[in-house]
User: What shape does this take?
Amino acid sequence: MTEANPPLAQLAEDTATRFVQRFGRPPRWIVAAPGRVNLIGEHTDYNDGFVLPMAIERYTVLAADRPVDLPASRSRQISWHSDVLGETVHVSLQPPIQRGDPKWANYIRGVIAGFQNRGQDPGPLEVLIQSNVPLGGGLSSSAALEVATATLIEAVTGHALGPIEKALLCQKAEQDYAGVPCGLMDQFTSALGQRDHLLLLDCRSHTPELVPMTDPEVAVLIVNTNVRHQLANGEYARRRAQCEAAARVLGVRSLREATAERLFDARDRLDPIVFRRAKHVISEIERTVHAALGIRAANWPTVGQLMYASHFSLRDDYEVSCRELDVVVDIAQAIGSAGGVIGCRMTGGGFGGCAVCLARTAALPEISPRLRQTYQQQTGNEPTLFVSRPAAGATILKTQPVRTGD
Assistant: This one.
């Protein structure tokens, strides 16, 4: 009742095959970058707080080679073909690189611009994109594309960035070219993920701390509601502005520096909505730190309570949940610890997408069909479920020496 995650090697082989079918020759470079799921710490990254994500066993894979018999008109561009979207876009390498359509290619344009600003130009390429990271599911398909693009340019140019510098370059690409005022959790996780570990990321100092997640008796179950409400458009930026407004009233640089006591002391000076937004962020930062400690100690009941508290705060104070996400969490709570569910919460930006559950591995054969069937009965939608272990970050899977004339 859960979708299997094909091995990365298989996904890479399939991508290489599709490249041959489309371009008539094998690719010289193959790279991959994972999506991510955040166990707890939502909407805290752009407030300099803590987050606790992990890379997932779902990837964006790029296969690439230099063009053959390149006409002069294409000597300064990269051709990108997305198998997922069935769409090809030609991205100009002529600086300054401009935003444009289709919008998904702006993630790529921003990354290329970031490398050009560092004196690195990949030159003309033909690239095929494959991905099994769900689009619009809150699992960072955009960051996976950005980090995969950066990793490809590293392979092509032979100049590797440090993983933190690469993550920051990709974050800036999304902010400047996609117009999303994102924090840095998604790109950091895709670039720095470690197998069998969560990342407790301090978004103020950019310091990641590895949290082991090796207990085979505990599984991470991801439930994609397969809905995405249009309300999400613009709401992310609005929440960020509300947090900044709260920080100004509290006299701090970011809500990371505020305390619950300071917030409640200033309640009369805050708009009620702004107060609730700040209340979520301040309490969520604290929950995230405690959850990391709980996971280290295998204190799963406490971790589960923190996950539910996070969801209720996101639902009531931050107001970024939706009926479908609430239904998943309600079902998980009804199954409860007796049925093998440790905790559950929405994950990602909100207004649809995915929920993440911690569950007892042995109970998954009973939990998964119950979640699926009850969710479908209550919403009329078919969910998608899959389990993931914490995965490794971006990697170069195939590279060949640069040939003379490249």
About this structure: The chain has two domains: 8-212+392-398, 218-388. Residues 341 and 359 are 4 Å apart (CA to CA). The chain has eleven helices and twelve strands.
